[in-house]
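Just wondering, can you check both lines?
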Amino acid sequence: MKSEKGQSLVEFALVLPLLVMLLLGIVDFGRIFHVYLTLDHAGREAARTASIGKDDDTIRSVAVTDATSIKLTKENVKIDFDPSNTRTSGSKVKITITYPVSFLTPVISQIVGDLTLKSTTIMRLE
């Protein structure tokens, strides 16, 4: 039997890319989950602000303020009042927030591309 001094180094070199991909996948999942929870919270706060009769600019500002960790912009926040854009008591407001997320993992980002998360919240006006 010959010397096996380099065997563990070769095995480590074969396994290392898989371990790095797994680690980056975990980080990507955590980032995406954080964005999802942040969008959900910002949507609820914006819908609550709309339900008490605030104007559109204030509603968007509340959503942006609650999502500062992901740098949400006012252009990502859509406000719809139902029915026919009336703001009467008992009607509903629908807040839709969309946000693009890019993956850190190189292989996944090439396969999947960018992901757009969407959060929709509906609340009755007071």
The chain has three helices and three strands. The chain has one domain: 7-124. The beta strands are 77-82, 92-101, 115-124.
